[in-house]
Specification:
Length: 99
């Protein structure tokens, strides 16, 4: 479970950075209404909140703090899968921009 939390933290940081740059350069639009609102309110608030989540995931992994709820494991694996897909989408548009 520790590796999953670390992986999520890394993928979330990549997502935060790529989304922030993509929005800043007007290459993409934020699909998540909550994150779009944060970015439109204050771009650094958007980035800070995303990076704070990554730090929290790293701390939870480091401290071995994992909820013992039956639905938590499927939820965390789903989140990891979605972040992996999102990271691939970001890589695709970055590749399209630089080529």
């Amino acid at each position: 479970m520790k590796l999953i939390f670390y992986s999520l933290a890394i993928l979330n940081s990549i997502d935060a950075t790529m989304t922030f740059l993509g929005l800043k350069l007007s290459l993409i639009e934020e699909a998540n209404p909550t994150m779009r609102f944060l970015y439109e309110t204050e771009p650094l608030l958007f980035l800070g909140l995303k990076l704070l989540l990554s730090i929290a995931l790293l701390v939870f992994g480091w401290k071995n703090v994992f909820p013992r709820i039956s639905w938590f494991k499927p939820l965390i694996y789903t989140a990891l899968s979605l972040y992996a897909i999102i990271t691939c989408l970001h890589a695709k548009w970055v590749f399209q921009v630089i080529t």
